[in-house]
Sequence to fold (288 residues):
Amino acid sequence: MYRSFLRVMQEGSLSAAARALGSTQPTVGRHIAQLERALNITLFIRAQGGLTPTEAANALLLPATEMASLAEAMERVACSQGDGIQGTVRITTSDVIGTEILPTIFAEMVKLFPKITLELVLSDKAQDLLNREADIAIRLFRPTQTQLIARRIGNIDVGFFAHKEYLKTQGTPTTLADLNEHRLIGFDKVTNYIRTAEKTLPFSVDKNNFCFRTDSNVAQLALIRAGAGIGICQVGLASQDKNLVRLLSDDFNFEMDTWVTMHEDLRKSPACKAVFDQLVNGLLNYVN
Fold:
């Protein structure tokens, strides 16, 4: 019933909710009526334009979302308890790790565990695991939530890089001050992580100095590879492209503390444990 409730809240009508659920309008309507009777409240006001949630419905949205997330997590654990390691494991990480590092690790993982299904969520939200939006997270900061199991991978080094062709036409900076004369690639929005990182840098960062601004690390890497300008890149990724040249390594070398984390409720899931261990091993090989 709560799944029908959540879909109606999202879609605004019984018919749209039914389509999203792969169900029928009468079935969804019956679920809503049953929930209203069970709780003895009115959840929606019926109107020509659809359904308008009441204050009671809005108050129930968060606990219903938490129930749905918990049920999905329980289903994933239950699926992994059969013969052999099987089930669905949902992983969240940043876009650049998800697209540049994990595919090779995943390819090896499914050879070892062919019955496992992997889902990948590209996100930097720190609350993914607590909200049960994912089972395992790879993060570039130390987790602080006590409900999480965490394994430190080590530091991922990053530095300034540019394409050889860019340096041929624009010259090579020899000091940090020289960067002011170059096309720089950087972020668009200032996040808490960026504010914290800035405190350890030997120079100030002003996004107004960037010629190209994007919060996607994948897009920044693509711009560096295309010769659009100078940007920051993981040293391990840049080493895979002979056309990329590291710049000012004596002046700038930033390290990102890398962790693999999992909600403690999933520690008894064979599938989650197997994926967790394989991610740790694969990332240790990448870092080292």
About this structure: The longest helix spans residues 55-79. The chain has a mean pLDDT of 86. The chain has eleven helices and eleven strands.
